[in-house]
């Protein structure tokens, strides 16, 4: 009888080509119709195991009687299944998917790319005037953009003037706006598009709309959230994570955990930054978005950013001013200091 004795690694990132080794016995010398299955993160099959047709699309690196190696697709945390002649066998250990790309399919050629959508290298985001005129909200948005730009290099910039457009506007612009009709805390709506030229289909993110509820008592600052209020920065961080290609995970130490825990509760109240796992997943998407070869239909790759602190993209094509360089150095020093503190006091920084 087939048996899985071990899977490794246990902590992984989905959809970026990482491999998992499944060790055991009775897998047969050749794959034939057998396959490996993971818990699905796709909304239409969320939490269930992927079916045979899907699993046959994975990239199997090795298949022997006692070891199978396969690329980990977009997936959710859960035990790994191996299906031999129509029967599922389950691993003892759970595979922890710490971050996973959202729309990366099993074939990287059909993945959704970020592109040079605004003609200056990436995506320009408009802040609705209600958030723009609220200084603390605007500062929170600026800081969250800086965080993503600094950690991932994604070319997202803010427009230097607000928009009066509401969230339900039909303009094809990237917008962050309050949504009185929203029934959840926040939502990132993505609009995708694809071109097929000479039999090659290229898929891209066209624009995004980030809806934020107006029903919460928002706290716009950093750090611990006062009781009775919810953390604006965390919700925006999560929604912008979707706009950077991330799907939900069921790992409580991650920004992309699917269910929003009341923000005054630990650890979410302290969360201000994207995690190292999310950074790896997004950087994979950014690199792919900067290096694709499709050039038809006005599509070109996302360009690299000159300075992560230039959040309004003012110096994209100019020599960067001295204050931006200083800020860059200060940020590096601050991160180095916090790294040293983490080494000394690991428990303090667990969350
Ligand atoms: Zn979400």
Assign the structural class, choosing from mainly alpha, mainly beta, alpha/beta, alpha+beta, or little secondary structure.
alpha/beta
Number of strands: 16
Q: What average pLDDT do the residues reach?
A: 88
Order of secondary-structure elements = EEEEHEEEEEEHHEEEEEEHHH
Q: What is the CATH first-level class name of the largest domain?
A: Alpha Beta
At the fourth level of CATH, the homologous superfamily of the largest domain is: Collagenase (Catalytic Domain)
Total number of helices: 6
Number of domains: 2
Major sheet size, sense and barrel closure: 6 strands, mixed
Indicate the proportion of strand residues: 25-35%
The small molecules bound here are:
zinc ion
The CATH topology of the largest domain is given as Collagenase (Catalytic Domain)
Helix content: 10-25%
CATH architecture of the largest domain: 3-Layer(aba) Sandwich
Distance between the termini: 42 Å
Provide the low-confidence segments as ranges: 344-351
Mass-distribution shape: globular
Rg, nearest Å: 22 Å
Question: What can you see in these coordinates?
Answer:
The chain has helices spanning 52-55, 129-132, 135-152, 232-243, 276-291, 322-344; strands at residues 3-8, 11-14, 19-25, 35-39, 60-63, 67-71, 76-84, 87-100, 112-113, 123-127, 156-158, 174-179, 186-197, 200-213, 218-219, 230-231. It has 351 residues and is of the alpha/beta class. It folds into two domains: 3-100, Immunoglobulins (Immunoglobulin-like, Sandwich); 108-320, Collagenase (Catalytic Domain) (3-Layer(aba) Sandwich), CATH 3.40.390. The strands form four sheets. Strands 9, 10, 11, 12, 13 and 14 form a six-stranded mixed beta sheet that branches. The chain has a four-stranded antiparallel beta sheet with strand order 1-3-6-5, with no helix packed on it. The protein has a four-stranded mixed beta sheet with strand order 2-8-7-4. It is globular and about 65 Å long. The model is unreliable at 344-351 (pLDDT under 50). Bound molecules: zinc ion (ZN). The site of zinc ion has 4 residues, from helix 4.
